[in-house]
Design brief:
Layout: H1 2-6, E1 12-15, H2 21-29, E2 34-37, H3 41-48, E3 67-70, H4 73-76, E4 81-84, H5 99-111, E5 117-120, H6 128-141, E6 150-153, E7 172-176, H7 179-190, E8 197-199, H8 203-234, H9 238-245, H10 267-277, H11 284-293, H12 295-310, E9 318-322, H13 338-347, E10 351-355, H14 361-368, E11 380-385, H15 390-393, H16 397-402, E12 404-412, E13 425-428
Parallel strand pairs: 1-2, 1-4, 2-3, 4-5, 5-6, 7-8, 9-10, 9-11, 11-12, 12-13
Antiparallel strand pairs: 6-7
Helix pairs in contact: 5-6, 8-10, 8-11, 12-13
């Protein structure tokens, strides 16, 4: 398989061309023949015109790539090595929604042939690939794993907006259904991952490794968020405390903040869901989720209290929220906790304006019911710097004074303006 891919006698296909799938497909397409498959015809048209729908890559990323974008199953059948990179979200009750990955498995069941490889990259709980996805593929194809086709798992480690830690520079965890598949999958990924690969002993180990990467970060951020709540009651600035504590060589430098997006704020629920199915109710992991999911409300209530103390006409008070994406310098709004802040403020009848240099107003309207404010005013009672986009970092005390009333509060969630806001009340987590 490896040599035939290298000689372009066989093709590799990537199923799901989002922020994970497209970079993988393009990276492989620099070395071998690739089919990029997505069910969204509009996205396919954009990529055929060298446009990344996720706005992570520019047109130069498509140059020199042997790739064909399609939503045709017949074209997909031409491939022999399949990489599945579809999303794995949770529903409104934080229950894993396996619909995308099951549908992708159904697609695999329709196109997989004897001798083919199927590798999942979607973040799932340990056991999902073999217990949920594999039966779908086998039932539809009539083929058996290992005997007829090979199955593997290699969790994605792509960080949106990060131009330093890219696919090729991060060690890739790989796994397979047997020794032969493990080695072949490892060699294929070594074509594009300069940092090398780590061979996991089983598919379940690889799945578990991925899920705890983000769970660990979630819990550590939850600790920082809880500390920020405690220190706020003490009148202590959390970021000053962290700067002092960070002088110790083994202090872990996590910071408080909103935890949204489609990784840290989602993945732990996959682990706790599986844990509950096995009869164990998580204690620490779910406690961390409760704290992090509650931070948007904490920020909104802090701003509201300030407005009540300094404004007689609360219902006509204006609040500007700067940043609506789930993290800085990206356009992705999925699972943005900023939306929770806005919803909370609006529940108190405050007039909320929103700005963001990266987000799409139409997408925000469709997903959350609010739009970007085209023209900002100069009479805000509070400004919440919720996402520290690079464009915001150039602003100073004069800027914030120019758009706010004298008694206004500047709520700086990530503490990026610490010590720089002097003419207005300043608060950070």
């Amino acid at each position: 398989m490896y040599q035939e891919l290298l000689d372009k006698k066989k093709k590799l296909a990537v199923i799901g061309l989002g922020y994970v799938g497209l970079p993988i497909a393009l990276e492989f397409a620099k070395r071998i023949s690739v089919i990029g498959f997505d069910i969204n015809a509009d996205r396919i048209k954009l990529m055929q015109n060298r446009v990344d729908p996720s706005k992570e890559l520019d047109s130069t990323a498509f140059e020199g790539c042997d790739i064909e974008f399609t939503n045709s199953l017949d074209k997909l059948r031409e491939a022999n090595f399949f990489i599945v990179a579809v999303p794995t979200p949770v529903d409104k009750h934080n229950i894993p929604n396996l619909t995308p990955v099951i549908r992708a498995s159904e697609t695999m069941g329709k196109v997989v042939k004897k001798g083919d490889y199927v590798v999942f990259e979607s973040t799932v709980y340990p056991g999902c690939t073999e217990e949920d996805c594999l039966p779908v593929i086998e039932n539809l194809s009539g083929l058996k794993m290992c005997d007829d086709f090979k199955l593997g798992y290699s969790p994605e480690r792509i960080n949106p907006g990060d131009k330093e830690h890219t696919l090729s520079s991060i060690v890739k965890v790989v796994s397979g259904c047997d020794g032969e598949s493990l080695e072949t999958i490892a060699k294929v990924y070594e074509l594009v991952v300069k940092a090398g690969v780590h061979r996991a002993s089983s598919i379940k180990v690889a799945e578990a490794a991925k899920i705890i990467e983000n769970t660990q970060r979630d819990i550590n951020i939850a600790l920082m968020n809880e500390l920020s709540i405690i220190f706020d009651k003490m009148g202590i600035n959390t970021f000053e405390v962290l700067a002092a504590a960070g002088t110790k060589w083994n202090f872990l430098k996590f910071q408080p903040g909103l935890v949204g997006g489609h990784c840290i704020g989602v993945d732990p629920y996959y682990l706790t869901y599986k844990s509950q199915k096995l009869g164990y109710d998580s204690q620490v992991i779910l406690a961390g989720r409760v704290i992090n999911d509650g931070m948007a409300g904490h920020v909104a209530r802090k701003v509201l209290r300030h407005i009540i103390q300094h404004t007689s006409d609360v219902k006509n008070a204006k609040v500007l929220v700067m940043g609506a994406t789930f993290k800085e310098n990206v356009s992705d709004i999925r699972n943005s906790k900023v939306a929770d802040i806005i919803k909370e403020l609006q529940s108190y009848s405050l007039q909320v304006h929103v700005s963001d240099p990266h987000a799409s107003s139409d997408e925000l309207k469709h997903e959350y019911g609010f739009e970007l404010t085209p023209d900002l005013t100069n009479d805000y009672e509070a400004v919440i710097v919720s996402v520290p986009h690079k464009a915001y970092l150039e602003m100073d005390d004069n800027y914030f004074a120019g758009i706010t009333k004298p008694n206004a509060m500047i709520a700086d969630i990530k503490g990026v303006f610490g010590g720089k806001i002097l003419s207005r009340a300043y608060w950070s987590l």
